[in-house]
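Allow me, if you will, to draw on your knowledge of protein folds for a short while. The matter concerns a single protein, recorded as an amino acid sequence and a row of backbone structure tokens. Could you please explain, in whatever detail you think fit, how the structure tokens follow from the sequence? I remain grateful for any guidance, and I place the record below:

…
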Amino acid sequence: MRIALAGISHETNTYCMEMTPLSAFSTLRGEEAFRARGSETALGGALAACDEFGIEPLPILIAGTQPSGTIERAAYEHMRNEIAEGIDATSPDGVYLDLHGAGVVDGYDDLEADLAETIRHIVGPDVPITASFDLHRNVTQRMADALDGVFACHHYPHIDMHLRAREAIELIHGMLTEGFRTTVQVESVPILMPTTTTFEGIGESMIERVLESESDGALIDVSWFHGFPYTDIPHVGCHFVATSRNGGDAGRRAIDTLARTLWNERESYRPVSLSADEAVAEAAQATNRPVVINETSDNCGGGTPGDGTHLLRAMLEVKVPNAAFGFIVDAEVAAQAHDAGVGSMIDVRLGGKTDDLHGETLELSVYVKALHDGHITMQAMAKGAPLNLGPMARLVVDDFDILVASRRSQTFDPEPFLALGIDVRRLDTIALKSSNHFRAGFQDIAGTIVTADPPGLTTHHIEIFPRQLAPGAMWPIDDAAHY
């Protein structure tokens, strides 16, 4: 049995000013893909499942990049065509796709539907095609009709990407060995879902219901797609997808029930939004330490620049003691620190260089405490996967540590701090940029978590983003929304 592995992974924030070119994507082809073996990534999980079932994996092209603006049309078509040609040339028994799900291309508002349809046209109706996804996917029935199985990660933080990819491979194996067919059904709800963790609260109780719904023997999988609200497309919203055996109405019953439950409980998802100053003040009152302040509105994982200064400025103004900010993205300042060397005092213009939304540049005199090349290995979410943050620097202002990186990323776990000599367990306050993925690495460390939501491209104040293509009135920005 031979299964082709391919994918284009991108979370597109259509409110970003710049488009995403082909050069932004990192790619794996052929045997390069085998580097992912042993990692808790989607590709790592797919390869592990192939090994377990004695399947020959045929990696074609696996491409991905950091969340950013709309993908250039020529870039997408180049990658799509390479995948199509590779699948056509190998004639696999099945196809597995490693996708994010929120891809938007100039000229294609649903990257994943177009890619799935392209592959289906090549392989025909009898070759199984399955895909695993990030749960921040805006789903269409059009895409589902081109696939035999849809598997969103269940958790946010996405600690189970590798497990969901394994299930996608397992379904292909089962369809080919047992001869059954599947039905994939979608139900959409007019909700622009705030970033909601499944580690606690309403998100945790909802995912428990989703998993309980899979107890029907006819159901292979039920996926809850929170959606991605930082985009203006016709299918934005929240979605449930059921993959079931040989047709039937079990999937439809399950997703209709879950959709109604979500709608009825929608007010429980309304976030509390604190300004930077309010978050710093709340953190100061916390008795359980360390306190983690996550700046959700400048989350590179949603397409932001990562150089926002709102929270950092607020912390510097009140001189938060025994604290570190990890990290702000500013390649210029990181290079300046590396040129000066450890032990130097330098004057820097830090952050606030991308736009006016994320705060003004900070002019600071700093001490260069430590330097690092930025190559780290993730230890919580996507454990074992490499992450390149580019040259990094640890700068000190009045005993306050500021970590600076050169490449955009949110903070997933304590590794960036450790790389620059900081044990976060010894701090009273840890500040970082992330919406919820940080919980995978900091949940067990934090005594208290406080969310800061100053202006930014991933703010909870989604009412600031204009909507021209939404399918209708959407909660929570329009009281006329109904389901």
